[in-house]
Amino acid sequence: QVQLVESGGGLVQAGGSLRLSCAASGSIFSIDAMGWYRQAPGKQRELVATITSGYVTNYADSVKGRFTISRDNAKKTVYLQMNSLKPEDTAVYYCNERGFYNYAYEYWGQGTQVTVSS
Q1: What region does 66 belong to: left with phi over 0, alpha with psi -120 to 50, or beta?
Q2: pLDDT score at 22
């Protein structure tokens, strides 16, 4: 059974930093693409950042230059370093894992709340 467990969310003032972690278990991980998504109240879930098995990264325009995604395959963990946080970054942040091994698969974590106060 695959589990993705996020941690590191919380309340921070604008301009501050947070580091989210997502620990995976039960999955292959090293061959999978990992990503962070977020959903603010009343809005659709949106992509924040992704990182492939080959460490190629992609970011939403709104977070470029402020957020950094990274992965540690030995620890089966993906991170999201968030700097210069803004109130509009307030959302529930979800970890995502997707891959293909005989068939396509995708997993989601339960989410962690990030609140940025002005």
Answers
A1: alpha
A2: 98
